[in-house]
Design brief:
With 133 residues, this protein is mainly alpha-helical. 69% of the residues lie in helices and 0% in strands. The protein has one domain: Globin-like (Orthogonal Bundle). α1 packs across α5, α4 crosses α6 and α5 packs antiparallel against α6. The protein starts with 8 loop residues before the first helix and ends in a 7-residue tail after the last helix. InterPro entries: Globin-like_sf, Globin/Proto.
Length: 133
C-alpha cells in the first residue's frame, strides 16, 4: 500500500476520527472518554481537528487550553503515566497505519512532547503548584 504524508485538514480529520474510534474501545482510556465526553462527540472532535491543524500547519482557529483541560479532568478521573503511554501508543500506531512522511513524523513527535508535558503539569497540579496553560 502506497501511503502519503499528512497534507491537509481532511487528512487530519480522518486521522483523528480513526484514532478516537480506537481510544473509545480501549480498556484503559475508553472509560475516561466515556465519562467525560459520553456518546456525543460532536463538540470534542472539531476541537481536535482545529488543534492538530494548528499544531501541524499553524492554522488559526484553535483557542483552547489543553493543559488546563487535562488538569481539570484529572481532578475527576485521575490520569497517570500508563494513561499517557497508552494514548501515545495508540496515536503512533494510528499515524503509522495511515501516513508516512515529515508531517506524520511531526504528528508523532508533537504528541510525545504533549503527553509528557501534560503528564508533568498534572503531577505539578496534584502537588499544589499552579500550572500555566
Amino acid at each position: 500500500m502506497n501511503m502519503n504524508d499528512i497534507t491537509n485538514r481532511t487528512d487530519i480529520e480522518h486521522l483523528i476520527d480513526t484514532f478516537y474510534s480506537k481510544v473509545r474501545k480501549d480498556d484503559l482510556l475508553g472509560p475516561i472518554f466515556d465519562t467525560i465526553i459520553g456518546n456525543d462527540w460532536s463538540h470534542h472532535l472539531p476541537i481536535m481537528y482545529k488543534f492538530w491543524d494548528m499544531v501541524l500547519f499553524s492554522a488559526p482557529g484553535y483557542a483552547g487550553s489543553p493543559v488546563r483541560k487535562h488538569t481539570d479532568i484529572d481532578k475527576k478521573m485521575p490520569m497517570d503515566r500508563p494513561h499517557f503511554d497508552r494514548w501515545l501508543a495508540i496515536w503512533i500506531e494510528t499515524v503509522d497505519e495511515m501516513f508516512v512522511g515529515e508531517y506524520a513524523d511531526m504528528a508523532k513527535n508533537k504528541a510525545s512532547l504533549m503527553a509528557n508535558l501534560i503528564h508533568m503539569k498534572i503531577q505539578m497540579s496534584r502537588e499544589g503548584f499552579e500550572t500555566l496553560n
